[in-house]
Amino acid sequence: PAAGTMLTSQPSFTIQSVSKESAGRYECVAxxxxxxxxxxxxxxxxxxxxxxxxxxxxxELSSTTGEMIRLSCEAEASPSPSYxxxxxxxxxxxxxxxxxxxxxxxxxxxxxxxxxxxxxxNAVGEVQSKxxxxxxxxxxxxxx
Length: 144
Hints:
By secondary structure, this protein is mainly beta. 0% of the residues lie in helices and 49% in strands. It has strands spanning 24-28, 31-32, 35-36, 40-44, 48-56, 60-64, 69-78, 82-88, 94-98, 102-105, 114-121, 126-128, 132-137. The strands form 4 sheets. Strands 6, 8, 9, 11, 12 and 13 form a 6-stranded mixed beta sheet that branches. Strands 5-7-10 form a 3-stranded antiparallel beta sheet, with no helix packed on it. A two-stranded antiparallel sheet has the order 1-4.
């Protein structure tokens, strides 16, 4: 509700279906023929699971070996989420690559080729982004 909006003139107030928009400051003031009471205030915090707002780049990134790449993820949640970047290798193996909103790979190599997903998690729940495919180009390399 907008600031200063009167929600009810009843002695109690119930929010039937709580959503993140229900969060905020609520005040109760009593009134009689002799005047108004001091307001009693309640700050309502609503907990909700993460929602991915954006991932960058959105679906695919192609870069050359030795270059720096940056993947970023933004999620909304209450309480604030923790982040995990996972990489699925072409073999199917999954590696944890980072624990921040941004994943910076300073020196791209062939081992970074694959799909990356951002995971956001809090006490209420968790979510994963759509995958970002990383293509690595460069001179041939001989594996040992």
